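Milestone M4 deliverable, item 7.
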Amino acid sequence: MSTVKNWQLGRDMEYPYDEARPQRQIAYIFDTNKCIECQTCTIACKTTWTSGKGQEHIFYNNVETKPYGFYPHGWDVNLLDKLGPGEWTSSPDQVVNAANDPNAGKNYVYKGKTIFEAGKEVGERALGYAPEEEDYASPNLGEDVCAGSVEQGAFFQNIHNVWMYYLARICNHCTYPGCLSACPRKAIYKRPEDGIVLIDQSRCRGYRECVKACPYKKVFYNSVTRVSEKCIGCYPLIEKGEQPQCVKTCIGKIRLQGFISKPGEERADNPIDYLVRIKKIALPLYAQYGTEPNVYYIPPVHVPIDFTQQMFGPGVQAAMNTYRSAPTDKTLLSALLMFGNTPRIVHSFKNEGDFAIGYEADGKEAVRVPLDEPFFKRDFFDKTRKVFRLNVT
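Output delivered:
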């Protein structure tokens, strides 16, 4: 086992291979507060990549309802149970930046074991489990099921006593992939040019060690071709400077795809760097697994923090505080307006007056979005057509 740096854990950890970060790393940000679970992303991905024989159960992209939705069934709670409890501690050399959160603004260090460190103790490259066939039977399990119940006669009093939220999931194209570490055929690799994790199906023999080792269960076995397959990050689009299908088709504009810089090389004009590393409002999903996932989530503001901290780590409260400040922070608002407003990959952005502007890699303007939605008021009486107008919407 090699020792590698995991910035999400705030410490070094053990991994079967040496650290080898790509030239640039593909990354995504999903805003859970805006997702309506319309499943447009799921259908766009399904019809593009997994509509063939043996792929009926394969969803590179799925959207599940938390707390009771899973695909495959129990994918996260099963591994969390095997991994056991772990705790985060904050380092003392950071300044608090949110008055109502004593831990906000601090760096955190994970003191528990990662899947690689726990796997080493039981003779495995990565601690994992193999889902049963029936675990893939219900992609919409727990859909729209709330936590808690509404008593007879209860009414809304500005605070929701029951809650749920939608969690969109794809392959995280991890910096330290569990699937890659476990493959005995070395059929899985990260592309050095963009960090996308792919399977060389000519080398794969269908041992399914990757399915077992992926903590997010985003590697699937095709019983017809008898090899494993997974999300390819829509790399044909990436190579043309376009965002993936699931990002471009998102109705709620919850998604942004770009590239995250290496730790310590963050750029304030890179929207991914800005939201993940500088403002820290987008957090990794189950960072405690140790894979350094590259899909980041803006946590839901209406969900009990005990639940969201388990999923997104100890920085949730600070992230929510910062997210709520967007209406008064033009730079932050400009970064958030890069979501869903262009099919092109935004490599840099800026705020210019009342507009948010995004740029492609060559500096060409990709999108210009007003900070305030334009409002047009029509005269009640149209003198040209000599008719009265009545707005009913």
